């Protein structure tokens, strides 16, 4: 039997990188600003939900198929 010793990572040291601030363009892409949101809502080239009047329809066959799949998972 070998003597017990605490687990240590003998060859490598765990180094954490300091929390660097992100570049402005990366932050802007990750989080939309209120100004961007407003432009999206007022842009005439952006299609509104009302421009697509077709309702979303699910057939009874598709609904029953999904229901049976969910029941099989449970």
UniProtKB/TrEMBL annotation:
Basic and acidic residues composition-biased segments: 11-25
Domain of life, per lineage: Eukaryota
Region called Disordered, residue ranges: 1-25
Protein name as it appears in the record: Uncharacterized protein
Species, as recorded: Ensete ventricosum (Abyssinian banana)
């Amino acid at each position: 039997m070998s003597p017990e010793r605490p687990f240590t990572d003998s060859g490598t040291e765990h180094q954490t990188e300091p929390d660097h601030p992100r570049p402005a363009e990366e932050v802007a892409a990750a989080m939309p600003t209120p100004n961007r949101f407003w432009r999206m809502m007022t842009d005439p080239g952006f299609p509104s939900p009302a421009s697509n009047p077709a309702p979303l329809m699910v057939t009874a066959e598709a609904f029953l198929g999904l229901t049976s799949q969910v029941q099989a998972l449970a």
